[in-house]
Write a structure and sequence with these properties.
heterodimer; A: mainly beta; seven-stranded mixed sheet; four-stranded antiparallel sheet; B: 113 residues; mainly beta; six-stranded mixed sheet
């Protein structure tokens, strides 16, 4: 069974640009979450989607946005990039949003902003 | 807001030593508790989880954790570590209705052969 797939794995952008990251969840999983991982802040929740609807959002500025498609694939977008956006962005999927469902993580997209 | 604290930032042990990594959370309601591991260059993987029932839960690779509700703690243990346990370990809490995990800062574990 294929795991969570994230693309691209690595990318370099400059300040002011925007970036779109993609996530394909495990087949049959309808919930997709995004997390930002940095050495200073650790793992922080960005947002969670289920059946194309955003169910929860973390404390990030509006420059961070996401969406989910009917096939459960998800994208997140960061506009007007800042140096502090350099991070590993992790996508995680689970079958549904039932309390306690295990999250399966992808390998992440490592974004460097210059 | 819920928070998770992992007491040790970096732990260095020799092979065969015993391990205990601390995790405390702040939330008074119903929680699910998780320990995830991130081996170098790999994705986060679930080590073990607690939902309800027996507070002593066993996970993969010989790890176990004990939920002590009165102390809001969920400490990870392993009686005898191996070099291959070198990784970063994250404690996480899910609160009912939140649809997200709140992670601790992580503990980097280095095992010297």
């Amino acid at each position: 069974k294929a795991g969570v797939t994230q693309t691209p794995r690595y990318l370099i952008k400059t300040r002011g640009q925007q970036v779109t990251l993609s996530c394909s969840p495990i087949s049959g999983h309808r919930s997709v979450s995004w997390y930002q991982q940095t050495p200073g802040q650790g793992l922080q929740f960005l947002f969670e989607y289920f059946s194309e609807t955003q169910r929860n959002k973390g404390n990030f500025p509006g420059r961070f946005s996401g969406r989910q498609f009917s096939n459960s694939r998800s994208e997140m977008n960061v506009s007007t990039l800042e140096l502090g956006d350099s991070a590993l962005y992790l996508c995680a999927s689970r079958r549904d949003t039932a309390f306690g469902g295990e999250l399966f993580f992808g390998e992440g997209s490592r974004l460097t902003v210059l | 807001a819920q928070s998770v604290s992992q007491h040790n930032h970096h732990v260095i042990l020799s092979e065969a030593a015993s391990l205990e990594l601390g995790c405390n959370y702040s939330y008074g309601g119903t929680v699910n508790l998780f320990w995830y591991v991130q081996y170098p260059g790999q994705h986060l993987q679930l080590l073990l989880k607690y939902f309800s029932g027996d507070p002593l839960v066993k996970g993969i690779k010989g790890f176990e954790a004990e939920f002590i509700k009165s102390k809001f703690s969920f400490n990870l243990r392993k009686p005898s570590v191996q070099w291959s346990d070198t990784a970063e370990y994250f404690c996480a809490v899910e609160t009912q209705g939140a649809q997200k995990l709140v992670f601790g800062q992580g503990t980097r574990l280095t095992i010297n052969p």
